[in-house]
Amino acid sequence: MAASPFIIRIAMLNADTPVPNVLAKVGSYGNLFHGLLKAAAKHVAPNLAIESEDFDVVRGEYPRSASDFDALLITGSAASSYDDSEWNHKLDEYLLSVYETCPRVKIFGSCFGHQIVCQSILRKYGVIIEKDPKGWELGVHEIQLNEAFLEALGPGFCSANREPTPETANDPQPPSPKTLRLQFIHADHVKIPEGKSLPSPWLLMGWTKHCAVQGVYEPGRVLTYQGHFEFDRFINTKTLEVFGAKWDTKALQSGLEAMDKDDDSKEAARMVVRFLLEGRSVVYGGDGLMTPP
């Protein structure tokens, strides 16, 4: 007998609209995330269904009740999390309220989403968002994943993300990946006070040579990525062509060339799905019934 469908409902908090060429092809950022997470869910757990609803937070749209959803997903944006705008302040306040009053609702943020989640929830620990003095991080870069983060995800948590190779096909629990390649396009970064670390049980997800905070993780509650697993070559290229329209030709071309590389978006999406399943019993692909840590 087939297992009953297990549904995860996500409120997609759209903090921007894709550039015209991207919007025409994939629709909203929320729609883009939905498709990627739906595909990832099929790989992670065959009885898992992803449902989502789009909200335009720039226009003041929010769920009637956050508790109607299993998770909030905050998209990227051309805005900065510290901008003095009404919608930005409202989103900041909303995220903190949901975090403090709806413990069952998980929170995931990407790029701008990562930054405003950190700003909202970790502000009291001195975490800030600012312009990165190193400038833009563009194109595909390799994230060094934090070993403590991988351990917190639990044995085998990430191993299911990578497609089996001839060397690992018969290994019941292949080693977790140590790195993750994602597309990037950001000029702000999350900064932890010098000499300080994230409060327990929060962990860094990883880092690159350019950016020290590539994501944060609180088991069972919050996961963020500075990078864009929802972006591919086409999306990031078209986005940069708009963002960098007035840039020096050499700088723009360098950024565009950096985007024309392979990435690990599927693996990153599956990690998000596994995060969304933390604490819930579900039939995993090939693993039987499991309750993630």
Automatic annotation (TrEMBL):
Keywords: Glutamine amidotransferase, Transferase. It comes from the Eukaryota. GO terms for cellular component: cytosol; nucleus. The keyword S-adenosyl-L-methionine does not apply. It comes from Tolypocladium ophioglossoides (strain CBS 100239). The keyword Methyltransferase does not apply. InterPro entries: ChyE-like, Class_I_gatase-like. GO terms for molecular function: transferase activity. This is Putative glutamine amidotransferase-like protein.
